[in-house]
Structures
1.
Amino acid sequence: MTRRAQCLAAAALVLAGCSSGDRKPEVEYNCPANALEIEVLQREITRFEADSGIRIKLNPFSGQDKLYAMMAAGKAPDIFYTSSTMRDRLAAEDRILDLRTVSKGDPLPGRLWPHVILNGTSVDGGWYSLGNWEFTCGVYYRKDLFREAGLSPPDSSWTWDDMVSLARKLTRPPGPDGRGGRYGIFIGSHFVEALELMNGADIPREMLLLRIPAESADLYRRYVALMDEGIMPDLLRMQAMGMQPAQLLENGKVAMLVEAVPNQSLIEAMTAPWGVAPLPRFPGKKPAYFRSASGGLSLSASTRDPGAAWKALKWIVTEASTYQPNPVLRDVDFTGGWEKRYPQLLGSGFRQVWDLSLEHNGGDPRFFVRFSSWTSGPILERLQPLLDQVWARKKPVDSLLAAIPAINSEVRREIAVTSATMTMKPEFREKIEQALKEMHDHSAF
Amino acid sequence: MRLNERSQLPLVAGISLRYALTYAVLMLLGALFLIPFLWMLSVSLQDAQGMFALPFRWIPDRPRWENYGAALSAVPFGRYLFNTSVITASVLCLTLFSCTLVAYGFSRLRFPGRDMLFAVCISTMMLPGQVTMIPLYMAYARLGWVDTYLPLIVPSLFGSPFYIFLLRQFFLTIFREYDEAALLDGAGRLRIYWSIVLPLARPAIATVTLFCFIGTWNDFFGPLIYLNSPEKATLTLGLNMLKSQVIGSGSVQWHILMAASVLVMLPNIIVFFLAQKQFIRGIQIGGLRG
């Protein structure tokens, strides 16, 4: 070998050595972050990379269409957000990993609240997503308006009837110029579902067909009655005005408001004195407070390095500062962290609302969560227009109950087609067919 | 009372009542369409609470021009402006090149199957974007174009049926005698296209330029699907980054978002005013002949 060839071979070896040493596993994280969060995450990712040797490539442009296109092209990001309406389908199609397989021997599952794992579990028993955020809901109220009316603020023992009675006392008719009026309470229709739970409605997870328990129907009637009585603003009017709930409370247009707890935008928007109480109870019914469970982060089945993807996911949930303090972790003082961030939460009732929701966790009864991901679309496209009419007081609650058999018959047909035509793992198909068979003769359907 | 000679309607200060009424209605409608823009402008100059004030204050007590500074620094605005400009300029050039050429062919050349080809071309307008999204994404992914500007720019080289239709309609209004005279003088088809048809079609070209500019500048879905890296984002993605939060309950700084929206809209407004005269003529003439 000539001297020149030897030099070239040595240079090639050096270059090859350099490139292989720099070959770190790369994990693409598709997250809906804003500019500030990206900046913070990028900084922390650099530190994570130095510690773990794993690169995280941040892809902040997310959306369901984009995700499906990426998957179809075999370019799915390694970590992405899945909602409850898509998770089961993706699991059945073998597009996301069962986190049990990648988390073996890892202490993280032991640090999570048990319901967090349950919420990400599908019908085959696999754990497919790790929730990265949770919230409950409560009744925010204006302390000054209560004081002005000589009323005591609500506590954890208050009932629906107490709430209605307080709302009546706090309602003020508008002046002659049409201004200055106030409603006692406002409950957005998407929070009615949380109150169904409090009224004792039995709402299991992953329902394939529509069922409206008697307690739910009772709650719907009570809800509509609030508008009939004029102590809650008309939902249609509210939608037309495009009012933000926080705006209603801040401006004193309502004295009480059911909203998410914690609610960052409400906390930041409120300048008037406020407090928050747990949802009202119903006599004789066990409390079952709302606890969100709509989605979490999943790992793509096409990820090249599942171990690295899991480590990155774990870091995001437990250490990335944009997600901290994280309510899904048992050993984290979530309420303390939020009180530190927002001192106005101290003495507001926030801690009590939060603790009660953990003690009496009723789960997530929202319509898009209570049904299985195979049927939530077909059910909701038929149910939602009817619900809207009931909330607009154009149809009675009984019309909803009367529509159940027809809706279920159509949904059953659709799901049978899905089961027959969709490519899915056998255990998912078996579960669907078994569930359909069991429900076939059940009187409730 | 003085009357208009033609319409026999009364004249008010020398102006026909009919015209006065027409303008009044148009001004009212114009004001109606302006309200959302004025609202955005007003919120962009208020504090964080301004949007929620009841009743809404259209003119803030103290305009907060600093919101615009905050909007410029909230996202890498300059970078996104550059990215958007590169994409828009490229798409504009390629669209004008391809669409005028195809429209010229459909309007001036005679060849078998021309009208059927034109019908096929127009019928592609009926295809919703959602239908072609996944196959296109797969094709671009295979070409290695994802997370580059190529999927946003290259398709414009193959024309757009709407612009082709608009230009063809306009080209049909240009007298064929010009072409014949040029042919007699020895000009080829491309020379006629370049030296006669294009200069005469300025209003239609201005219209297409305006539509294409606004469409590309404001495009959100294309960049969202094909771009992954934050540094390659466009202005519309940047606006979305001001809105979205990692955690659902996070607050949105609406006044900053509105200031950024005004800044993003500005080029559209400037281009519209620059091309306004030609644009209106282009629309009028382009819609005359079928």
2.
Amino acid sequence: MRVLSAWHQYAFVIRQLTARELKRKYARSSLGILWSILNPLLSMAVLSLIFLNMFRRSIENYPIYYLTGYLVWQTFTLATTSAMTALPDNKPLLLKVRFPMDIFLLARVYTAGVNLVYSLIAYAVMLIVFGISFKWTMLLAPVYLFLLFCFSLGMSYLLAVACVFFGDVRHLYTVLLTLWMYCSALFYPVSQLSEFMQTVVRMNPIYAYISSLRGAVLDGTLPSGLVWLQMLCFGILTLLLGRTVFKFYRKKIVEFL
Amino acid sequence: MPSAKHPEILLRDVTMRFRRTKDTPTSLKEWMVSLLNPKLRKQAESFLALDSISFRIDPGEIVGIIGTNGSGKSTLLKIISGVLPPSSGVVFADRRKIELLTLGTGFDLELTGRENVYLNGALIGFTKRGLDRKYDSIVSFAELSDFMDEKVRNYSSGMVSRLAFSIATSKSTPRILILDEVLSVGDRFFREKSERRIREMIQSGSTVLIVSHSTQVIRSLCTRVLWIERGKLRADGDPDTVCRAYETMGKV
């Protein structure tokens, strides 16, 4: 009972912290929170216009091909980069409240999740505009996105710990992200790569989520058994590893901050 | 007489060590350099915020804690309330009964007064339902009914602390109450009102720990005073004696 009410309280705190992040982002604009939907919608419209005329021969429905990858990539980078600095950003708070420290991290990742929901609305509009018909495989999208969420959370734990001890991890990570992005086949077909690079891309956790979602939306196909295994392992194992590492360094983090 | 068997709070040899940030490698480059050169690695020196502090507090005591800035008072409170785990030593205290009152935890200038009540309330342990129920009385005590939909950015500093005080003291009185510099906010009238509220909380029978710079406040409220100086317990006794010793040190 006590555990249950504690979790209830944590959930309330996370919602409040998330509300703060969302409200703050557009605090000084007249449209306010409406930007949360407008922003992804407009950027998706612009991107589709740009990519409408590229790679047309090799990829069908190229704008949607790109936007699907973009959605996954944006969510992952937003979650990890914001959660990475959650501890130093909230330092004064952290030493005052009695909640587990990871609440601040969770709130940042959860904020990215809420942003994903807004982006999904924009994405749905794009699907309709480009005449993508409904496929039952689309119903599995929440499962893929949930596993992506687990993977992002796990990575956030690891990055947050690293960031406390080595402040320059955050700069290194942005460089790494650029490299990672080019290995995620966001805007080119994998088949155009050399065999070696194809293997690299297929080993990439993010690509597993992207390709599954593309299959579900564009072709109505399910991921292969291997890709399912990848998504599950990357999602759940990373989360477990992240949490374990975080717990292990908990006391040290407090001293270092 | 407080029972000899069951202290409310018991500290035994509590030590808190913080690392001095300038001595630790905060970049990967420095860390790698320190790996190659062990001489540099040993330099990491630590800073003793608390140096084996021991004392006990019995139920019903009202204990003031004084000491100059940076002497370790706030660290001590955080350890007692369980926010910080001590580097070594033992703390006996039932953490569920302890309430650490601090002002304006997580106040955000870009949010409205109302949003801050909920954010701050959530952070200091209010439930959603509890906040819904107490909301009106929080606002009226702070005398800010007309400003709640205004961003806190536009408040005066007095208004901010009035709101913060009102939220912090609206929770039901706990068994062990810890007040960290919450007295002396707002103008004279609000200060009197807030001292009345604190007195009510004290009189409802809980054990109270008060940190304050004002020996006047400590003298008028406490039954016992602890003086912490540079992480060490310098004196422990009745308010008059300890406060006087503290004041004479300030003059030298």
